[in-house]
């Protein structure tokens, strides 16, 4: 059995085993829980199947907000890294500001965005934008500046200007870091969008669905939303992996 097959089969076997332990009630015995506190997987899947259109509609609202915020936040994060690289004397101040913003918890950002924006979607996009900026800025800055000394010396010996150095050397060197930031931001954007929906005035989205149904003790329905949120995160992460493999196939990490 080759390593690639082992890497698939072992996690799959662990996942199936965990679900069986949960389904047969052993997990309830270990955690001292009752079925109404933690529904079994078959009950969750039956509830999800019966309410699939509503859950998917709410999932679409969350994903749209997360992806728009991810795009805006990643763009501004990269631009901050670019400015900090291009104008190192004062541009690095932007890195400090975005790092400070990253320390603000989402539960504090959401009420602030509620005051700034009038719609739930705009509030959600604002929260996700702030959350995604820091990871992109820090990773992109590292990729733009951690160059091999001889490569920069070589560009200088041929009198390459700053733009050529950026386009031919810094940007390709930063691409693996950019994809690392995107993989971090995919999970962060979904989490930020869901948490922001807890505080938003809107009545749609995965976060609102989880909060509303758990509050009404409809545990199976609440868990259905959690399952969809997890699947959305996995699918989006897989898409980034596939794009990364094609975009930087020349990099050692993809061989």
UniProtKB/TrEMBL annotation:
<feature type="transmembrane region" description="Helical">
    <location>
        <begin position="125"/>
        <end position="144"/>
    </location>
</feature>
<dbReference type="Pfam" id="PF00528">
    <property type="entry name" value="BPD_transp_1"/>
</dbReference>
<dbReference type="GO" id="GO:0005886">
    <property type="term" value="C:plasma membrane"/>
</dbReference>
<keyword id="KW-0813">Transport</keyword>
<feature type="transmembrane region" description="Helical">
    <location>
        <begin position="61"/>
        <end position="83"/>
    </location>
</feature>
<keyword id="KW-1133">Transmembrane helix</keyword>
<keyword id="KW-0812">Transmembrane</keyword>
<feature type="transmembrane region" description="Helical">
    <location>
        <begin position="90"/>
        <end position="113"/>
    </location>
</feature>
<feature type="transmembrane region" description="Helical">
    <location>
        <begin position="178"/>
        <end position="200"/>
    </location>
</feature>
<keyword id="KW-0472">Membrane</keyword>
<protein>
    <submittedName>
        <fullName>NitT/TauT family transport system permease protein</fullName>
    </submittedName>
</protein>
<comment type="similarity">
    <text>Belongs to the binding-protein-dependent transport system permease family.</text>
</comment>
<dbReference type="GO" id="GO:0055085">
    <property type="term" value="P:transmembrane transport"/>
</dbReference>
<feature type="transmembrane region" description="Helical">
    <location>
        <begin position="7"/>
        <end position="27"/>
    </location>
</feature>
<dbReference type="InterPro" id="IPR035906">
    <property type="entry name" value="MetI-like_sf"/>
</dbReference>
<keyword id="KW-1003">Cell membrane</keyword>
<feature type="transmembrane region" description="Helical">
    <location>
        <begin position="220"/>
        <end position="243"/>
    </location>
</feature>
<dbReference type="InterPro" id="IPR000515">
    <property type="entry name" value="MetI-like"/>
</dbReference>
<feature type="domain" description="ABC transmembrane type-1">
    <location>
        <begin position="55"/>
        <end position="244"/>
    </location>
</feature>
